[in-house]
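Example 9 (inverse folding). The structure is encoded as follows.
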């Protein structure tokens, strides 16, 4: 099996496992809130439709939830652009110095 196929299968399985664990965690949080009874819930949400952000909040601590949502959105954008810039740099190096094909790796290994 080629290495790229094996790696992509493992990454896909890790993605599915992470998504499943997030869903289970949300279900646990919902069950805990329902069983506890007298809880107050606050929420903040930022939805982007194109370049236009829509900010929503509800509950007694909505301003804190909205502040956290804005901070996490800004951090997400910073990480996105940083990774994009880093990946562009890596791809430019890859284009200048392509890796050795699998067939020549055996001849380069130390004996």
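The amino acid assigned to each position is listed next.
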């Amino acid at each position: 099996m080629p290495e790229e196929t094996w790696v992509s299968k493992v990454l896909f399985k890790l993605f599915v496992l992470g998504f499943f664990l997030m869903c289970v965690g949300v279900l646990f949080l919902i069950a805990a809130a329902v069983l506890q009874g007298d809880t107050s819930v606050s929420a903040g949400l930022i939805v982007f439709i194109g370049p236009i952000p829509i900010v929503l909040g509800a509950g007694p601590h909505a301003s804190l939830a909205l502040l956290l949502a804005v901070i996490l959105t800004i951090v997400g954008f910073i990480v996105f652009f940083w990774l994009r810039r880093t990946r562009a740099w890596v791809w430019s190096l890859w284009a200048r110095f392509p890796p050795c094909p699998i067939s020549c790796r055996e001849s380069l290994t130390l004996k």
